[in-house]
């Protein structure tokens, strides 16, 4: 039995350092939609940082061709094989194919850490604008379609142009990371931090993903007006 005197001597465990992140260097990263600009750029940057990367596509031949162009040990496979062989799977497919792609890979993605970076956007004569899926966001749609996966959201605000430019050594930006479990978001933050210039920042649970995805429409407007490739920085953290 603990007395009041004993209680005064009990020390609370120190709070975990929010920037203490796991070593993810040995994990295999799959990129679904890795033949598109965003997916190809992420695959290139992660492979350049020393990560083992597999590009996924509906057609294995197309993925293998893209992987061969990137070099750096990147492999190519069809989406199902990519999902099976990867520890972390980044979803970088077009929004109009998002649901169908994930529905078809539910079994292969079971137990996997899934990182959704899809931005539901529409375009008209006035420019880009955000769409709101029935589930609330692309990430929440992914979570609903993949009940046996650990779904997070990240890598939304990155310029595909900068990602693919071999002349650029570092990309000056923060990566907003959302998810339900801290262990999962820590892994994604650490993965983002593998890319020079990037930092992963926890930004809330998946219910907050819609505004993060939607902000891309604003960044597109910024980039068009200023002829830039703008990203984001979170200050005072």
From TrEMBL:
Residues 29-120 form the Pyrroline-5-carboxylate reductase catalytic N-terminal domain. It holds the Pfam family F420_oxidored. It comes from the Bacteria. Keywords: Oxidoreductase. The keyword Oxidoreductase applies. GO terms for biological process: copper ion import; NADPH regeneration. Gene3D superfamilies: NAD(P)-binding Rossmann-like Domain. One of its GO terms (molecular function) is oxidoreductase activity, acting on NAD(P)H. InterPro entries: NAD(P)-bd_dom_sf, NpdG, P5C_Rdtase_cat_N, STEAP_metalloreductase. One of its GO terms (cellular component) is plasma membrane. This is NADPH-dependent F420 reductase.
């Amino acid at each position: 039995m603990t007395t009041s005197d004993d209680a005064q001597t009990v020390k609370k465990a120190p709070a975990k350092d929010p920037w203490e992140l796991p070593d993810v260097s040995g994990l295999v990263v799959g990129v679904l939609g890795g033949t598109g600009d965003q997916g190809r750029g992420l695959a290139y940057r992660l492979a350049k940082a020393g990560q083992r990367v597999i590009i996924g596509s509906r057609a294995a031949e197309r993925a293998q061709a893209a992987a061969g162009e990137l070099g750096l040990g990147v492999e190519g496979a069809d989406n199902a094989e990519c999902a099976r062989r990867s520890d972390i799977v980044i979803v970088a497919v077009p929004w109009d194919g998002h649901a169908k792609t994930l529905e078809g890979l539910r079994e292969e993605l079971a137990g996997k850490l899934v990182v959704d970076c899809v931005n539901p956007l529409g375009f008209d004569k006035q420019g880009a604008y955000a769409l709101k899926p029935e589930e609330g966001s692309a990430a929440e749609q992914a979570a609903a379609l993949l009940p046996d996966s650990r779904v997070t959201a990240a890598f939304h605000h990155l310029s595909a142009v900068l990602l693919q430019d071999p002349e650029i050594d570092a990309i000056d930006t923060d990566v907003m990371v959302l998810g339900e479990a801290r262990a999962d978001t820590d892994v994604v933050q650490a993965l983002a931090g593998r890319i020079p210039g990037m930092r992963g920042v926890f930004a809330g649970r998946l219910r907050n993903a819609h505004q993060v995805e939607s902000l891309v429409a604003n960044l597109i407007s910024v980039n068009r007006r200023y002829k830039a490739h703008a990203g984001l920085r979170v200050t005072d953290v």
